[in-house]
Input
Amino acid sequence: MEKIVSLAKRRGFVFQSSEIYGGLNGCWDYGPLGVEMLNNLKQAWWRSMTFRDNIEGIDAAILMHPKTWEASGHVANFTDPMVDCKQCKARYRVDVLLDELTIKKKKDVLRDLFPGEFEGQQKDETIEAEFAQRLNNDEIIAQAIQKSISCPNCGNKGTFTEARQFNLMFKTYVGPVEDAGAVVYLRPETAQGIFVNFLNVQSASRQKLPFGIAQIGKAFRNEINTKNFLFRTREFEQMEMQYFVKPGEEDKWFDYWRAERMNWFLELGMKQENLQWHKHEKLAHYAKAAFDIEFKFPFGWGEIEGIHSRTDFDLGNHEKFSGKAMRYYDEQTKEKYVPFVIETSVGASRSFMAFLCAAYDEEMVEGGEGAGEMRTVLHLHPKLAPMKAAILPLVNRDGMDEIAQKMTKDLQKHFRVFYDDSGAIGRRYRRQDEVGTPYCFTVDSQTLEDQTVTVRERDSMKQERISIEKVKGYLLERII
Ligand code: GAP
Output
């Protein structure tokens, strides 16, 4: 992970937000290559969703009427239980406090809570399983926190406050008066912007069920613990799609969208062995069924996307809270009803990090140029790669640089390509490998004679010659 974070900074993918002031926890800035890759990722998702007949896109405002969040359940339920240490004032999410205990400490907790039952030798897996099973209600957890768990910061035991519910939504005020009537929230998910626009979109686009609405946008959560680079941040981007279906058909569409979304990651180059399903046993307040797609990060498995069967919870509640009907008129059956919803919800920033981790490699070059050296390479899918090609004059003279510059200008009408004429050719290839550029075109002395260039493919490092006039088509075929 450290190597990936360091490469991300050094090569301009991701910087710490407001770094010169010491940074702001849970916020990150995308640099020149990062923003290209993030845009490519969003575009790949947008195309996969909206380049079909029955999914429309929208871009809703981040600030919404505060009633939205009462209707969605976020005001009441979007909370994490949290404790403070009275001694050192450190604040912890209860689930994280429990999760991060070592096996030895988990065993101590079990011994304290259930005297006599955990005295002998037990396997680590047994302790893990018993811990998860026994600490399964608020009362037992409260006892554990008061009796057996010391503050990770100051080491004191018995100094935690009672658990309090902490709402993760960021609050702000509209207008000049900062009173309760002016409170609005930075949206914690993009989904609600879709729900409140359901009928606007349906009537404007004359869609019939089943149909979907897709949106990409920023979301904000005042996470108590931000960690693992872009994994859990306070400001992030989501790519969400709500698919509206006739009640009774939701299970069929749930299975359909699970398959579609897993395939999306595979088609963009992720390996099946690095992806797995996680079925939610404990469901969110709105869900009938939920599965996560998890990715194997260097620090362990972590959710990158949730696929949720959200019933008619959201539309039904917006109908109640707004007093406006959120019903679909079914021309076939002549009925009006509130549709059910299947949601696909993926973090753009979190999956950006997953794609970066999946692509990162350090490998020994076996033959050809640079044989026997180690190279760092990002095996990014060409669709995601920030730069699609590098144009390299072998030397800076004899007209090779002019040809390379002209090629660059021509290709820049269509793709992000990078011109580089500094340093030995091998070093230039390495610089491109490190940022995942899939193709390098080199102008050499033969180019002067027959107007061909070499094209070197990043992963195989194989080279072939093609004529300059075929370069654009070569890239189009592989990148779009
Ligand atoms: N509308 C449903 C919803 O928001 P979620 O499981 O809370 O569901 C969906 O979030 C996705 O958003 C997650 O799978 C993750 O990729 C991303 N996400 C959620 N919280 C995040 C955070 N604090 N930082 C980065 N990404 C986050």
Summary: Residues 189, 191, 221, 223, 232-233, 236, 238, 240, 303-306, 343, 345-347, 349-350 surround glycyl-adenosine-5'-phosphate (CB under 6 Å). The mean pLDDT is 94.
